[in-house]
Amino acid sequence: MDEKVFSEEQKHLTKTYGELQGMEQELQDRIEKLNSDAAQEKNDIRDNLRFDFADDEVTTETYGEIMTWNQYVDSMNVKSKALTDQISAVRLLLKAPYFARIRLQMDEEDEADDYYIGNANVNDKDFNPIIIDWRSPIAETYYNQENGRTSYEVNGRRIECDLKLRRQFDLTGDHLNAYFDTQVAIEDQLLLQSLTKQRSDKMQAITSTIQKEQNAVIRYPDVSCLIVSGIAGSGKTSVLLQRIAYLFYRQRKTLRPDQVVLMTLNPVFRQYIDEVLPDLGETNPTTMTWQEFCSIVRVPIVDGAHSITTLDDLKKIDELLPAYELQESDLVPVDQKGRRILTTKQVLDTLNLHPEIPLSVRKINVGVDDLEDAVREVLRRKGKKNAGQDDADQDDGDAPEETQADENRMQNDNGGAIRQVHTFGFLNVEKIARHLLHTDHVTAIQYLYLRMKLTG
C-alpha cells in the first residue's frame, strides 16, 4: 500500500467520522426537543380540550378541535419517524462509514468526481453526498465489470461514464486498517483481509467472475420467480439477502419487510443470518422454516427428508382436476357443537347442484353459498322444533321477518357450522389429492397447491 494514499484516506475517514458524530448529536438533540414539545402539547390537549356535545353547533366545534389535534399528532409522528430513520442510518455508518470509493468522469471535459459507498446514504447540509447507499443507481458502476467505460441506469435512462478508480477499504469505526485498488467488487470480509496480504492473478480472476454474477442477481429486475443456481460456498445466501435489501431500497413506498417471508433451512440457520439485513440498513422480514410455514397455513402433512414435488406433479393436478368427480369420502360433514347439521351425502348433493361447472374455485365458491343456505335452513327448522312451532302453524303472510337480532343470534348459537362452510372445512383436501393422483402419499406442496386450486 502507498503510505501517502493511506494517510490521505485515513484523513478523509477521520473527517467523515467526525461529521457523522456531529450529525448523531444534532439528530439526538432534535429528537429530545421533539419529544419535549410533544409532551407539552399532550398536557395542553388534556387541559384545554373539552368534549362538549350540548348541541349540533358545539358538537361540530368539538369534532373540529379533535381533528386539529389529530392532525398535529400525525405530523409529530411523521417528524419523529423521519428523525429516527436518520439517526439509525448515521449510527449504522458509525460502525464502518463506507467500504469503497469510486471516481467517475461523466464527460471528458469535466473533472472526475469521487463517491464513497456505504450501507446508507448521508448528505451534508447543502445536500451534497457524503456517503452514497450501495443500492443507489450510481453505485452500480462499482459492481460493474472493469475500470473504464461503464454506465448506470436512472429511471430507465442509461447514463454513460468512465470509472477511473475502484478502491475498497477494510476499516473499523474511524480506523483504516487497509485499502487496495481492484478491478472487481469484493464483499467478503475474510476475502478482503486475505487480499490485503496476498493477491494473485488467479484469485482476482475467480473473484471477478463471481462478483459479476452476484451483481447481476442482486440488481435483476423484479420478477415473480428468480432461480439462482450455484455451488456450495458461492455466496447464494449472501446474494439473496443483499437482493432483499436492494428491493426494499428500490421499492421503499410499495414493499415493506412485513410483506416478505424468508424461508430458512432450520432455526439455527435463521439465527446465523439474522444480523445481515440490519447491517445493510434494513429490517429483517418474517423468517420461518418450511415446517413452520405449513403449520401457519394449516397443512396437515409433514414432509419427510425425501419428499419431492416436481413441476410435472403440479401440472398433473391442473390437467386432472376439471374432470374429477367428488366422492363422499372427499368431504367432511358439517357439525355444530357435536350436532350433525349436514352429512357428507348432503354436502355432495349440494355441491352437485351445478353439474355444468367443472371442479374449480368457481364450483367450490358457488357451493359455499348453497351450503350456507342449506345450513341456515336446517338451523331454522331445528330452532322452530325446539320452540314447539310447526311450519304449518303459520301462513307465509304471517311469518315474521328475520331481524338483525335473529341473524346475530344464529351466528352466536350456530356460527361454528357457518364458519366451517366459509373456511372450506367441508373439503378433505388430502383425500381428494390421493384419489386425484392415485397415490397413498401426498406431499405438503401438492396439498397446498390443490387447496389453492379449489379454494383460491
Task: Characterize this entry briefly.
The chain is α+β, with helices and mostly antiparallel strands. The chain contains 15 helices and eleven strands.
Shape: flat
Average pLDDT score? 83
Radius of gyration: 32 Å
Q: Roughly what fraction of the amino acids lie in strands?
A: 5-15%
SSE order: HHEEEEHEEEHHHEHHEHHEEHHHHH
| Helix content percent band | 40-55%
> What is the structural class?
alpha+beta
Number of helices: 15
End-to-end separation in angstroms reads 62 Å
The major pleated sheet works out as: 7 strands, mixed
Low-pLDDT segments: 197-210
The number of distinct β-strands equals 11
What does this structure look like?
The chain has helices spanning 3-48, 56-95, 140-143, 189-197, 201-218, 236-250, 267-273, 276-279, 290-296, 311-320, 344-351, 361-386, 404-422, 429-437, 444-455; strands spanning 100-105, 113-118, 122-123, 129-133, 148-154, 157-172, 175-181, 261-264, 286-289, 334-336, 339-342. It has 15 helices and 11 strands. The strands form 3 sheets. Strands 1, 2, 3, 4, 5, 6 and 7 form a 7-stranded mixed beta sheet that branches. The protein is an alpha+beta fold. Among the domains are: 3-95; 222-296, no CATH class; 311-390 and 403-455, no CATH class. It is flat, with a radius of gyration of 32 Å.
